[in-house]
Amino acid sequence: MKIAVLPGDGIGPEIVAEAVKVLNALDEKFELEQAPVGGAGYEASGHPLPDATLALAKAADAVLFGAVGDWKYDALARELRPEQAILGLRKHLQLFANFRPAILYDELASASSLKPEIVAGLDILIIRELNGDIYFGQPRGIRSAPDGLFAGSREGFDTMRYSEPEVRRIAHVAFQAARKRGKRLCSVDKANVLETSQLWKDVMLDVAKEYADVELSHMYVDNAAMQLVKAPKNFDVIVTGNMFGDILSDEAAMLTGSIGMLPSASLDANNKGLYEPSHGSAPDIAGKGVANPLATILSAAMMLRYTFGKTAQAERIENAVKRVLARGLRTPDIWQEGATKVGTRQMGEAVVAALQE
Ligand code: IPM
Ligand code: MG
């Protein structure tokens, strides 16, 4: 079980250190190797995804990823910005299936900005396609507009595209995930306007024939954004493309009021995966020891479940996190009156202690 550990920037190193402690407390034979990525990669060797880091990630069975990005790199050319590291890893490792659960822990029910009755018990899973769409579609660029009313002026353009096999493979992943949960799959598109979405929808309908036990519905993305805040508990599993999934998964994360709690997994066709918290690098609180390590710790649990097939160990970690929350330990992002405020390291150590119980 070889794990590439890529802490990255901002709070990345602090939160990854706690997840590593949790992994090391499990009594399993993990081989961990660390490498710089994002801004740290740029500082180390002039590129956000250094060759050695990519080679390490390729050779590993799984990647534990912290976060990348810092304002100080905002002025760099796009191909050198920290975000390119995560896009590059997704593409090079063919991590096309992104799992983003949004779960509201009972202990944190009042952290949501929505009314408790709308979000209590929330447990939805967004499956986002990660290798295609307007994120990677060619051609793209900035040019002189070749035609139209504004011919000759500067224009930016990107290409939204999905091929049938790309949609088919994410459809299978989504139907199989839905089958293991509430058996309801909602495919989100914009088929009333976009050709890409029409193909997406047609392929979803076709794949559905192989999953008679799963109920498939379709929703336009604008309506899905609305339903997510109106009646989020009506969803079970959502499957959508790269761009819509980027937006809806942030919205879904915020329903829980605690983005610091949400893990994510990005998988290839053989369950190799990259595991990272859903939140970003939070440079404003980096180095202060106050970041919430739980999303990263729960990402390590997802790694045990999806890549290593160690369900019992994954549940051990998840239960340890619940016990720590039940005892009232809270990092500042989820702290409320009456709870015990702890820092990053104390939170990690409390989870390690709870593991042994
Ligand atoms: C995410 C992030 C990334 C994305 C950025 C950092 C490139 O927003 O993982 O959702 O857009 O996919
Ligand atoms: Mg995003």
Brief summary of the model shown:
This protein has 357 residues and is an alpha/beta fold.
Which SSEs are present, and which pair or pack?
Blueprint: E1 2-8, H1 12-24, E2 31-34, H2 39-45, H3 51-59, E3 62-67, H4 83-92, E4 97-103, H5 116-119, E5 123-129, E6 141-144, E7 154-157, H6 164-179, E8 184-189, H7 195-208, E9 215-220, H8 221-230, E10 237-240, H9 242-255, E11 263-267, E12 273-277, H10 294-306, H11 311-326, E13 329-330, E14 340-341, H12 344-355
Parallel strand pairs: 1-2, 1-3, 3-12, 5-10, 8-9, 8-10, 13-14
Antiparallel strand pairs: 4-5, 4-11, 6-7, 11-12
Helix pairs in contact: 1-10, 1-12, 6-7, 8-9, 10-11, 11-12
Q: Explain this structure to me?
A:
This protein is an alpha/beta fold and 357 residues long. The protein folds into 2 domains: 1-95 and 268-357, Isopropylmalate Dehydrogenase (3-Layer(aba) Sandwich); 97-258, Isopropylmalate Dehydrogenase. 39% of the residues lie in helices and 19% in strands. The protein contains 12 helices and 14 strands. It has helices spanning 12-24, 39-45, 51-59, 83-92, 116-119, 164-179, 195-208, 221-230, 242-255, 294-306, 311-326, 344-355, and strands at 2-8, 31-34, 62-67, 97-103, 123-129, 141-144, 154-157, 184-189, 215-220, 237-240, 263-267, 273-277, 329-330, 340-341. Helix 6 (164-179) crosses helix 7. The mean pLDDT is 96. 3-isopropylmalic acid (IPM) is lined by residues 83, 86-87, 246. Its EC number is 1.1.1.85. Its cofactor is Mn(2+); Mg(2+).
Based on the model shown, name its key terms.
2 domains, alpha/beta, globular, Isopropylmalate Dehydrogenase
